[in-house]
Amino acid sequence: MQRGGSMPVARRKARLVCVMVMLNICIFILMGVTWKLVKSGPQKVRIPSKRFWRRQIRSESFWNKEQQRLDVIYNPIFNPALSGESLIMHPDWLNDTGPLNLCDSDYRVLTQISDYNSLPQRFQDFLLHMRCRTYPMLINQPHVCNEKPFLLLAVKSLIPHFDRRQAIRETWGRAGVLANRTVVTVFLLGNTLPVDHFPDLLGMLDHEAKLHNDVLQWDYRDSFFNLTLKEVLFLEWFSKHCPQARYVLKGDDDVFVNTLRVVDLLEGLSDREAKDLFIGDVISNAGPHRDRNLKYYIPVSVFVGQYPPYAGGGGYLLSGDLVTRLYNASQQVVLFPIDDVYTGMCLRKLGLAPTKHTGFKTFDIVKKYRSSPCIYRSLLLVHSRTPQEILEIWPWIVRPELGCQ
């Protein structure tokens, strides 16, 4: 028993000897280094020959220049108000702000965009007013989200598209309780002008808005190049009037949406999955088209670089929480003339990217399957469909007894 009890004491002694030896070695090394430093005299601090922060090179393309300026304004490292170094690095172009009133015509574009005069008129108008985001709201529905909707359907439309809106109201955009969840629909409109060859339909629109209480309208020129403006105005409206909506589906007024399947998908999400939800028909590794004959033409004088991943603007689904964050991010991103690319830019500003979902078919489905009820029951969104086709397809969704063709 005595022999067995003496073993731990021996081990402790051995460990103590090892610790003392290691401590002496460390002291010896430290003394040697100290003696060498004293003998060699005071040491100079080495100053790097290059700046830690690179000097930012100003782009030659107008949109990129404007974005660089916003990046500086919203970056505390480079902000001139916080860093004297920034004033030295960017003395010239930081103050190239254009008119003080952001909604005045920005005539810098005439001299800073070399081929401005050759661009389509609506593109010219977009560039002249690219910085303006403040437009009067002509029709509002401030109480439409009082019931705290599970799903808000936000549909981009034009004033003359009465038939499309009515088809949506009678089918996939029917407001109320759907699959035991509250669904609310709003239609997003600008103003159509005689100069764009539109008739005066404001009286009819006013009647429609009072009848259905689902029309939102702002006083800006509703054109292809202003779809981005429609996007940011909706983001602002949502943040003020509907932040309690859990999910938002944004789409065009010529898409078909299987709302039942959308609700079913959303109910199966965890809180973690729901927080940053943004799904759609994602386009990656894309860049600007340089062919002047194309609808999506973007000249080098306006933008250079690749596009971030983005979901096709025909329709996509995201969380309400992310909509609010996108609104905040949009204040830091210069308006871009293609709305779905712009939304991708705002997502990237948040450090996010859209997720591809095979249920979104923004480029349609194979022709031979377009009359099959089973196809539409398995999908979330299909683009594009006429009002008559939407009215025909919807019963296939809500009446499962109808067999597949």
From TrEMBL:
GO BP terms: namely:
poly-N-acetyllactosamine biosynthetic process; protein O-linked glycosylation
Q: Where is the signal peptide?
A: none
Q: Name one GO molecular function term.
A: N-acetyllactosaminide beta-1,3-N-acetylglucosaminyltransferase activity
Q: In which pathway does it act?
A: Protein modification; protein glycosylation
The coenzyme or cofactor needed here is: Mn(2+)
Q: Which GO terms describe its cellular component?
A: Golgi membrane
Ranges annotated as spanning the membrane: 16-38
Grouped into one coarse class, the protein's main location is Golgi
Top-level taxon of origin: Eukaryota
Q: Tell me yes or no: is Transmembrane among this UniProt entry's keywords.
A: yes
Instruction: Name any one Pfam family assigned in the record.
Output: Galactosyl_T
Q: How does it assemble?
A: Interacts with B3GNT8; this interaction greatly increases B3GNT2 catalytic activity, independently of B3GNT8 enzymatic activity.
The family database entries (PANTHER family) matched by this protein are listed as:
BETA-1,3-N-ACETYLGLUCOSAMINYLTRANSFERASE, N-ACETYLLACTOSAMINIDE BETA-1,3-N-ACETYLGLUCOSAMINYLTRANSFERASE 2
What's the name of the protein? Hexosyltransferase
Instruction: Identify the species of origin.
Output: Stegastes partitus (bicolor damselfish)
